[in-house]
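We modelled each protein-ligand pair independently. The example shown here corresponds to the 2-acetamido-2-deoxy-beta-D-glucopyranose entry; the chain sequence is given first, followed by the ligand as SMILES.
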Amino acid sequence: MALSPTAVLVSSFLFYCGYYFMHYGKQPQVYKKKTSKFSHFLDNYVTTLVKPFWSFFVVPGGRFQTIVAALLPRDYKVSYYRKENISTPDGGEFLLAWASPGNKDEPTKPLVVIFPGLVSRSTSGYVQIIVKELIKLGFSAVVMGNRGIEIPCQTGKAFCAADTNDMQLAVNTIRERYPNRLIAGVGISFGGLLLSRYLAQKGENSKLQAAFVYCCPFNPVAGSVNLEKWDNWLLYNVFLTNDLLKIYDRSREKFVGVVDHQKLKRVRSIREFDIHMTAKVFGYESVDHYYKDSVITTKFLHSIKTPTLCLCADDDAFVPIKSLPYQEMAQTDYIAIAITHGGGHVGHLQGINPLSTPYFVEMMMDYFTAVFNHSDELPEIEKPTYSVQ
Ligand SMILES: *[C@@H]1O[C@H](CO)[C@@H](O)[C@H](O)[C@H]1NC(C)=O
Ligand SMILES: *[C@@H]1O[C@H](CO)[C@@H](O)[C@H](O)[C@H]1NC(C)=O
């Protein structure tokens, strides 16, 4: 008896459904120190941490979901950014894009500072989703734009994962303006790497009430090795490298004498870009020194004194699960990490509609609502009495 095509289709579909329901829809694994005040805070107020994550039904695997998420035709158009250039002591310039609907400054609202990924801008899809959702909840948002991305480089220097000087200036500038405001930070991917380092360097004096760190490659040495594999290279590395090269191209004259133009022209991966650009500009002996220097070590994790919730997926090509310091985080008083099955790198699309609010945004909003509404219950955060240095 021959099977009809319909029967084959139906049974394949059912087979796939069986597979999907077996493998997805799990609660994230949460690693935190059970006895810490932060752990109790999360248990009491952040219910998304126990919500099952149903990875996007059509593309549940992280690799392709990352691409789907990046290519989705989301049309948020945050049209109300007020952009401000911030000059750095070394003659550089970076951007603060303030979300100000109605062009109003509302200094009583809690504020979230967004540090986006490597080549992202205030207009990148996921950044706009975060901004929109924050505004919807009655919070304010400001996006930091690294040198060279939305405004051209003014000097022969762009950015590097181990240099938080611009971030320090950004937070100081904002805190100086609003000494008594509730302010939290969110770092995504590269931005998360910088934010974690910043929080570690500043300890009790981070000037932020809380932080959310998403898809952070805590160990860039491991992340880089994974990204150089040919399939990942083809999937993501090529696009990111092209964007990095555009930053260089736009400000090429600023880098004369610092980098070798002929070599940069032939760059085909992030690692090669870092060999010929980042490592050179920031004075590293080699790219391996640069990556090693960018690792968020256990010592760094223990120096963080700002309540910090991290979220990652177990199939993130930029953040190999083996390189995630989740056991170490569970020993600290201020860090917790949730790891989902599926979600990819800055993906976390959920359910059957890829345009619905991604899981990471849901968790982020849940967290910030808790942070702002119950700030008095956060560990060791009293009334903000910041002295600006
Ligand atoms: C910020 O810098 C950009 C690029 O250099 C420039 O076009 C823009 O006018 C500057 N904005 C302000 C407010 O100075
Ligand atoms: C948080 O606080 C605001 C303002 O006090 C209130 O409108 C909102 O309902 C609160 N949200 C939650 C989830 O408690």
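The pocket of 2-acetamido-2-deoxy-beta-D-glucopyranose (ligand 1) is lined by residues 85, 151-152 (CB under 6 Å).
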